[in-house]
Design goal:
The complex is a heterotrimer of chains A (about 550), B (about 230) and C (about 300). Chain A is mainly α. Chain A is built from 16 helices and no strands. Classes of the chains: A mainly alpha (about 550), B mainly alpha (about 230), C alpha+beta (about 300).
Chain lengths: ~550, ~230, ~300
């Protein structure tokens, strides 16, 4: 197996080279690759905006860019990173690629809808790009009314349209995943034999399906307000601007679980493989995923504690917000316990997994801070919140994303990445990330508000530290872009199972054939059963 | 892609696409998919229903006055037309189950016909509202019987937004029906495979049900109360 | 705060240490080793569910009680009005002093802020006082604080409001009581309620709202804080929010027994003028001592 030359064997990558065979593909693996390229581009653009923001914030005065430009920068950074990178990130790439294989299916339930999802993301992105290049949008990614509906003179509608369209991409992906998991499992693949990555993407699909339509209709209302002045969010006409906040966060809070649940699914896979043990407390981790999805819909009001909503509403939302923290904590404990008496390798994916667990823990714990009503009054709308969500989204999701990319790289491409460089860049990412965002907790607590172009001089030292960290972080992100591309041509050829992992995806060749399996497997083993894993001759790690 | 198809399992037919093992599995998956899609539609309309609920409870009198200015007779006629169209749709699905091509086409055309009547009546209603100056964009907007023109505008905004969204879904439905009619004429559907008719039926019924909610909420506020 | 930090540090260190220890102690020593399976225990899962839950409930309770206190100004709080607009803060003292982007207050005295916005949502944020409250157009929001140390404290707008959001900042000057009195007397003209009395005449409110109730509209004497019976049933408490609404949107809540005759003054009065009128009407009620917290709509 390890000596086989790629060109001899037909697989999903060389099964047709024409542009048409890619752009009209029904193969979930090719669609995953298309998504991977697309969202990498979005990430680069969002990251470029972030760099400009941090560069501006080196000095207290607003001297690098104008206020208008700065406001557009942080808005576009948020819009692109949330809607065009994080929401699709793990599900559209690794979910698309591996969910069918992991359950022993030949493809998703609706392959052409899967392709449509990708085109919708592209179309949404096109609208968003148009808005950016035509002059930008400056409402903040949260579009609060009445600023966004009545006062902003920027390209709100174009951006809203982009998000609207991209939302349908997300809905269709979720729908596809749900139906696939319900109806396409191979014989013997019971729910509790599925890898936890599948559970995570399933729970995510539920959120995508139930939550995204609400932001879609909210954007429709913003459009109507802006164009027809219907007054739904305009107090002069009897409307309520805070209603927008409720509608917006009803989706946008569950959205953060869309962003983090699949990442947690990746971590389950990484921790198990690189400790060579089943995930500790499998059923609890599985139910925790579903629990997070459900409770996640009940906590949106914690974004509105100081908005003027009633004290009693605040009480209810604060209480429920503590509830949603518990399943996440359960997962962290279970992953840590998986390491106990394991056989732990320090391969790059595992380093990212360690990073995730540590940073997500910090981010999650600071969530407890903001869920506390009294404390949130002080820290909301400050850099504390920015630090909190970047810890879970970047220290969490992005690290899991990178870990997953490295883990499944040999399977997707048939090549190994260079381990030395990969470990180094993981270190850069970890160090750079902490230096960027930890000072922001302090900044926020000291009172530095968010979305500020210029700030009082006493905050400068912490901002400089943060920007220094951002530079290191940027290097940490650029390195994989280079060496992963390099590995496509010069990387070591990988066999079917370089990590001696369990899971059906490792029992197919690398890269997999278009139809995934020669014969649909009949599953008799439990998940994460390493005693039956076929060993590789190549030593890795 | 096609070259591998024969080596692995089965060739692809309409009733049994590559990724499925049995036709039953495909039918089942398609139906489940449509139900989930309809749930997303519930959430989509739900946002507007939520806004309606909030503003109606804030301005109950104005909403009642505004609702009274809508033409209940026409609204009721439209409701009946839509219910009738759901019936003919069910008959079309049944014809599909029995594999009766001509009957499928007949009932689909009837459904299409009723759907178009609904849309035509809606267009007439909207024109009426425009002439009565009840359209929120108009400079001359005015609802008689109340000083609260702002909330009155809100009612009509919600009226047009919700019935507009509904009408858009009807238009899509009309498009789907047209497509189904054409496909049936080409002989695509049979007892073994009539799933598109089946799930389109689900969609059509859903759009009907949305109207069943819209009609009383918009047209019938406080009508039961004595004047 | 310290409790939260302590808990966070504890759990962070616990997880970090556990990972670090396990990663080293159980590092892979050979490529072929296969660890024995460790059985999951229901007990363990329950323990590490229940204990964190208990801790979070403490956090919830503590935070909630602070929040409750923050939302109820003490009865003896002094009233100050704030109006946010792009991109400045306008503050009005009862005595008539007006400030822009600055607020002078005495120490050791509770201060209640009643606020609204003229345009978009802003947020009144004084980090040193742990005070933050969104300022929303179309309604009043309130908050309160009590400064204990004299000094100069940052005031920020904490809800993004457009181009010069980061310039919508200022200072709160907390002063010794006698310095505050001195500062107060330094400013000209009459109190808020005196200005309101003038407006009440200028805008002809007095023609209908006669003091003895003989006009076409109810007398406003003694009305503040009372429960009002509305036409069509229902009641409302006559607080700042109700008074503001009655000026800007009079048909919304008509008093029982009266006709909806009052024209709206929207567009004819600024938010500051509304505040002056409210203060005047309040002054018609003998004891304004029990100011209720603005009823939130």
């Amino acid at each position: 197996m390890s000596t086989q030359v790629l060109q001899e064997r037909q697989h999903y990558l060389n099964n047709g080279y024409s542009l048409k065979s890619w752009l009209l593909t029904k193969d979930h693996k090719r669609i995953a690759v298309l998504y991977f390229i697309t969202i990498s581009i979005f990430f680069a653009i969002g990251g470029a905006f972030a760099s400009m923001i941090r560069a501006e914030l080196i000095t207290p005065a607003g001297d690098l860019v104008s206020s208008e430009t700065y406001n557009k920068l942080f808005t576009m950074h948020g819009v692109i990173m949330v809607f065009f990178f994080l929401i699709p990130s793990v599900p559209a790439t690794m979910g698309n690629f591996f969910l069918p294989i992991m359950i022993g299916a030949r493809d998703l339930a609706f392959p052409r809808i899967n392709l449509l999802s990708w085109y919708l993301l592209i179309a949404g992105g096109a609208f968003a790009f148009f808005a950016m290049f035509a002059g930008g949008v400056d409402t903040g990614w949260t579009f609060y009314t009445p600023y966004s509906t009545t006062y902003s003179n920027t390209y709100v509608i174009a951006t809203a349209l982009g998000i609207f369209v991209a939302g349908f991409s997300s809905i269709l992906t979720g729908l596809n995943f749900i139906v696939t998991v319900h109806r396409m499992r191979a014989p013997g693949m019971t729910w509790f034999r599925m890898p936890l990555f599948v559970w995570a993407n399933y729970a995510t699909g539920v959120i995508q399906v139930l939550g995204t339509p609400v932001i879609a209709v909210t954007l429709v209302l913003v459009f109507c307000e802006r164009v027809f002045h219907i007054g739904i969010f305009d107090p002069a006409l009897g409307g309520d601007p805070v209603l927008f906040q409720h509608l917006f966060w009803f989706y946008s809070h569950p959205a953060v679980y869309i962003m983090v649940l699949p990442a947690m699914g990746v971590i389950s896979e990484l921790v198990s493989t690189f400790a060579r043990k089943p995930v500790f407390g499998y059923p609890f981790v599985a139910f925790a995923s579903v629990g997070i999805a459900v409770i996640g819909f009940l906590v949106w009001g914690h974004h509105l504690f100081v908005s003027g909503q009633s004290v009693y509403a605040g009480l209810v939302f604060s209480f429920l917000s503590y509830f949603v923290a518990i399943p996440s904590a359960i997962k962290v404990f279970n992953w840590t316990a998986t390491l106990y008496k394991g056989s732990i390798s320090y391969a790059t994916p595992m380093l990212y997994a360690f990073g995730f667990i540590g940073l997500f823990t910090i981010g999650g714990l600071t969530g407890l801070f903001v869920a506390a009503l009294g404390l949130d009054v002080h820290v909301t709308d400050t850099y504390f919140v920015i630090a909190h969500f970047h810890y879970v989204m970047v220290g969490g999701t992005v690290m899991a994303y990178l870990g997953g990319v490295h883990y499944w790289w040999p399977k997707m491409t048939g090549r190994m990445y260079p381990e030395g460089w990969a470990k180094l860049s993981a270190l850069f990412v970890f160090a750079g990330f902490n230096l960027t965002f930890f000072p922001q907790f302090i900044l926020g607590y000291l009172g530095m508000p968010r979305r500020y172009h210029a700030y009082p001089p006493e905050f400068q030292v912490l901002h400089v530290a943060s920007t220094a960290g951002a530079t290191i972080l940027a290097i940490g992100y650029i390195m994989p872009a280079i060496y992963l591309a390099w590995s496509l041509r010069y990387g070591e050829v990988a066999g079917a199972n370089p990590w001696s992992a369990s899971g059906l995806e490792w029992q197919t060749p690398s890269p997999p054939p278009t139809h995934n399996f020669e014969e649909i497997p009949i599953v008799t083993q439990e998940a994460y059963d390493y005693s039956h894993v076929k060993r590789e001759e190549i030593e890795v790690g | 892609m096609a070259s591998e198809a024969h080596a692995h399992g089965h060739g692809e037919t309409l009733a049994l696409r590559e990724q499925f093992d049995t036709a039953y599995q495909q039918r089942d998956a398609s139906t489940l998919g449509m139900w989930i899609f309809l749930i997303t539609e519930v959430m989509f309309f739900g946002g507007m229903f939520a806004a309606y609920t909030i503003y109606r409870s804030a301005y109950p009198t104005v909403f009642a006055i505004a609702s009274a200015s809508l033409n209940v007779t026409i609204g009721a006629i439209n409701t009946c037309v839509l219910l009738l169209s759901s019936f003919t749709m069910v008959m079309a699905v049944r014809a599909g189950q029995l594999g009766q091509r001509k009957l499928i086409i007949f009932f689909l055309i009837l459904t299409l016909f009723f759907g178009c009547i609904f849309l035509g009546v809606k267009a007439y209603e909207w024109t009426e509202k425009y002439e009565e100056h009840h359209m929120p964009g108009q400079a001359a907007f005015h609802l008689e019987g109340t000083d609260l023109q702002g909330p009155a505008k809100l009612f009509f905004s919600l009226y047009f937004a919700m019935t507009g969204l509904h009408a858009m879904h009807m238009v899509v439905g009309v498009g789907i029906l047209t497509f189904l009619i054409l496909e049936t004429r080409k002989g695509r559907y049979s007892t073994e495979y009539y799933t598109p008719v089946d799930i389109s039926g689900l969609y059509w019924h859903f759009v009907d049900v949305v109207w069943i909610f819209l009609f009383p909420l918009l047209y019938l506020i406080d009508r039961h109360l004595p004047k | 705060m310290y409790f939260l930090v302590a808990v966070s540090v504890f759990f962070t260190l616990l997880i970090f240490a556990a990972i670090f220890y396990f990663a080293i102690r159980y590092r892979r020593r050979s490529e072929t080793e296969l660890p024995e399976s460790v059985h999951t225990g229901l007990t363990l899962e329950i323990v590490w569910t229940v204990i964190p839950f208990g801790i979070t409930m403490i956090m919830f309770g503590w935070g909630a009680s602070i929040f409750f206190t923050e939302s109820r100004p003490p009865d003896d709080a002094m009233q100050i009005y704030a109006v946010g607009k792009q991109w400045m803060w306008k503050l009005q003292h009862m005595e008539g002093n007006r400030e822009i982007n600055e607020l002078h207050i005495p120490i050791n005295r509770s201060v209640k802020l009643t606020m609204t916005s003229e345009d978009v949502i802003h947020s009144f944020f004084v980090p040193a006082f742990r005070t933050k409250q969104d300022v929303v157009p179309g309604r009043y929001t309130t908050t309160w604080f009590k400064a204990t140390k004299p000094g100069k404290y940052h005031l920020f707008c904490a809800e993004y409001c457009g181009t010069n959001h980061s310039a919508m900042i200022g200072w709160v000057y907390a002063m010794e009581p006698q310095d505050y009195q001195q500062w107060l007397s330094g400013a000209p003209k009459g109190t808020l309620s005196e200005a309101g009395a003038q407006l009440f005449t200028d805008l002809a409110c007095v023609n209908c709202h006669k003091e003895d109730g003989s006009g076409r509209c109810p007398s406003l004497k003694g009305i503040f804080g009372q429960t009002v019976l509305l036409a069509g049933g229902g009641t409302v408490k006559a607080d700042e929010a109700y008074l503001r609404e009655s000026i800007l949107n009079p048909a919304a809540k008509v008093v029982q027994g009266y006709q909806p005759l009052m024209p709206t003054f929207q567009g004819q009065v600024t938010e500051e003028q509304v505040v002056e009128l409210i203060e005047y009407i309040k002054s018609l009620t003998p004891q304004t001592a029990d100011e209720p917290a603005g009823r939130r709509r």
